[in-house]
Write a structure and sequence with these properties.
There is one protein chain. By secondary structure, the protein is of the alpha+beta class. The protein has three domains: 86 residues, no CATH class; 88 residues, Beta Barrel (OB fold (Dihydrolipoamide Acetyltransferase, E2P)); 175 residues, no CATH class. Helix content is 47%, strand content 15%. The protein is built from 16 helices and nine strands. The strands form two sheets. Strands 1-2-3-5-4 form a five-stranded mixed beta barrel. Strand 8 and strand 9 form a beta hairpin. Helix 6 packs across helix 16. The longest helix has 22 residues. The mean pLDDT is 91.
Length: 381
Amino acid sequence: MVDDAVLDRAAELKHMLVEYSEQPRYDRVWHEVLDRHANPDMLWDEHRIMALWDYLVLEHRLANGRTVVEQFVDAHPELSDQERAMLLGWRDVVQGPFEVQRRDGPALITHNLVDELTYRLRANAGPSVFRGVSRGSFLIARVVAVGDEWMLSGPTSVLRPRDRATAYQLAAEMSMRTPQAAYRNPDKLAMAWQHQQRHRENFIQCFGSDLVVVPGHEAAQQLDKFWAYCRDNVTASDPPGGSDGGASSLPPTELPAEMVESETVALIFDREDGLGHYADYGLVQDAFANPDLLRRRRHRETVLSYLHDDSVPPTVLQRLAEQDTDKASVVFRRLLKRPQFNWRTDGEELLRKYKADQLARPRWPQFCPLNPRLAEHVQRR
């Protein structure tokens, strides 16, 4: 349990942090964040504004790659090492419906519906905040770590036990929209990798390979065919612990117009990157097979776009290059005007330069297995 003095100091630091974030220097980025999350169907009440501001302060990456809380820590050298560590830990926000299990002194013992872990929640405004919150209720909240407990951060709303379906719907949407939110739980992470591997095996069985190249106008139809294959192959041998959301519940696939209109699209189900689709893959594939095609502007620009585009993972280029490393060396010599380039010795450095962001990000499974309660709710809807 956390001493009350530590919680009081955490509350004081949070207040200082919010005041720091209200400087004019952050006005422009605040409006950018607000515009990015704007939805014409959404009512922007005070609750939503406060939650978005909390996101800006703790999680949003500024143009320099840093967060407001990181800049706050740098601006306060008088902070102790423990306080600095706590503040920087607040970048790791836990969200979602928390089902209230019981009161424990000044705290609530809760169960997070997304990651299925237990959280002992405290309020920096004191235990009176929890007055009237009954067992079986749901807190829609953002929480940050204070020692081995968790403190409410930003606004909190309460759903009564009779609103269980609403809480389940929110948790299911979060699980499918941001699967990594569930991966704080190592068991769910391991289960998600199992589901991804099962889907990859289904993809290979469906198409005969983990890569298939189709005309752009047929890509969505082929993806629908794959998901139908997954649905038809659901068996009792699924990994225990719930569904991944149910392929049968997915609507018809919709792809961006530029992908539908492209000459070819590659559907690739990589072991770690998961399922991806890449426009004009045929042009790139042909250039790696015959580097002389790079004399043609369209081939050259498309290969360069694969190198620069953040949506194309490095594994796609590795896959192309490893089919014939000598030809891959010629491709990059001509593209980059580096006559000594050799894929076998320089390829890794090339990817570190052009795909640095992707390589720096952790790799998560694409598929988040829902617990049986959430899966049943999704299937009913």
